[in-house]
Amino acid sequence: MKIIVTDEVSKEGLALLTQDPRIEIDVKLGLKKEELHAIIGEYDAIITRSGTTVDKELLDAGRKLKMVARAGVGIDNVDVDYASSRGVIVVNAPFGNTNSAAEHAMALLLSFCRNVTKANASLKGGEWKRAPFTGYELKGKTAGVIGLGKVGGRVATRLKAFECEVLACDPYIAVKRAHDLGVKLVSHDEIYKNCDIITVHTPLTDETRNMIGERELAMMKDGVIIINAARGGIIEEKALLKYLDSGKITGAAIDVFSVEPPKTDELKALIAHERVIVTPHLGANTFEAQVNVAVDVSKEILNYLDDQPLENAVNIPRFDVSLMDQMRPFLNLTNIMSDFIIQLVDTNIDKVTFSYAGNIAHYDCTPLTVCGLASLLNRMVEQDVNMVNAALIAENMGITVEESKTTQSPSFSNMITLTIECPGEKRLISGTLFEGTPRIVKMRDYQVDFAPEEHMLLLTYGDRPGMIGKIGTILGTHDINIASMHLGRREKQGEAMVILSLDSAVPPSVVEELRTATEAAFIKPIHMPGARCSRACGCGI
């Protein structure tokens, strides 16, 4: 695997990659856009931080790219949707700099409250002044934390240690988490109206862009202190400057800006404001965090090479890692079933339904569905399909994908059923695991029981004496050995289905000979070359 590193990344953190003989790393810092685009086509993966924009143009130029690894939390410099459409996996390091970011938010807050930066400059300038630098205590203040994720939760804990009353707002976390942290969950407006200190810890998304603007700032208490060590653009900077000038906002401490480096007159005025302290996006800049995020993305690249599940892929549905061992056989089963049934379909697909019954229905089955969908589509389209782009490709093809679950399973403790609906026909296959081995237990309305093999042949025909003999004779004449046979029928002299496992493939001419001899209503050779997903799938089976 050939990897390019385009931003400053800890060498210690990259050691896992540099020591692996399968990997070749090129560190190329400070490349101009045109220079990077000219060479990116040589690489399988790119490791970046915030200094490289991974946009449509770069992804198009990176024709071999399989992975974008962002050594940090934010991915706003990566066009994840377009990467997904190209089947490129995007991974980040969401936890490596968690502690660093939380501590930096507290450092900014304390520095402002105790006038550390001003007092430092004054003393170093030869002055000995104390009165101008009288500060504020945190004890007894009401602090509002917007975003109670990994970083926000740590900030809330530290604010409580300083004896603040902490209010929090986060629509995506459980009330129990707030209780565990000892904070009170409230609405956004309650934060703005009641808090002496407000600190934001959300990602930058369409939902959070300019989340705190004119309306929100006007609603705040007089004398409020605002901290932003999350992402530039969450707070509307023009409005913030206005309320700083008016005196309504006592001060702000800012580590991130909507444009970095800040170039506009507005941002320069905000940075220069006497009641604003600033740092140049240093939230993740500790020695420990730099090593941690590099280690985290390096591990993800090695997981990819080793066919292990990716823990921090942002565009692949994934299992809880603690469940991976027990779910891995079901991923394999879904892949095999999908690869089998799609070979029975000759017309356009309208709808695909994945149904899960039994104990497995207690868990999130989305990765199973997407893995199975990728296997289906790989037989239908020329481009490589994996768990990253499967849903997008299905949508573009007009295929409806549904998932259903029930904890009741009358026949087996766990059963997966895959149904494909086409114009004028429907295909159905059900499978389960016997001691960890995939078995097909139902096809259409026939009860069957077989383990898929590399070479198989499926026939349906009118049940009458001598048919099995004819099939065996024809195959024997052409030196095709039958390894096993599975026969199903609904009634005597009705339709019969036979599924043969063979030692070798059946040539088209022999298929036609069998069709004629048996007057088969349906006959199809099946080729199952393997029972593993493509490495690019990312599911780790």
Produce a short descriptive summary.
With 541 residues, the chain is of the alpha/beta class. 33% of the residues lie in helices and 23% in strands. Helix 1 (11-18) runs parallel beside helix 13, helix 15 (366-378) crosses helix 16 and helix 17 (467-477) runs antiparallel to helix 18.
| Strand tally | 22
Envelope shape = elongated
Oligomerization: single chain
| Broad structural category | alpha/beta
End-to-end gap: 20 Å
Write down the Rg. 30 Å
Count the DSSP helices: 18
Please summarize the sheet with the most strands. Answer: 7 strands, parallel
Low-confidence stretches: 531-538
Strand line-up of the largest beta sheet: 8-7-6-9-10-11-12
Strand content is 15-25%
Helix content: 25-40%
Mean pLDDT equals 89
If you had to describe this structure to a student in words, what would you say it looks like?
This protein is α/β, with parallel strands linked by helices. It has helices spanning 11-18, 33-39, 56-61, 80-85, 98-113, 116-124, 150-161, 175-181, 188-194, 214-219, 237-246, 265-272, 287-305, 324-341, 366-378, 390-396, 467-477, 508-518, and strands spanning 2-5, 24-27, 45-48, 67-70, 89-92, 142-146, 165-169, 184-185, 197-200, 224-228, 249-254, 276-278, 351-358, 400-406, 414-422, 425-434, 437-443, 446-450, 455-462, 482-489, 495-502, 522-527. The longest helix is centred in the middle third of the chain and has 19 residues, at 287-305.
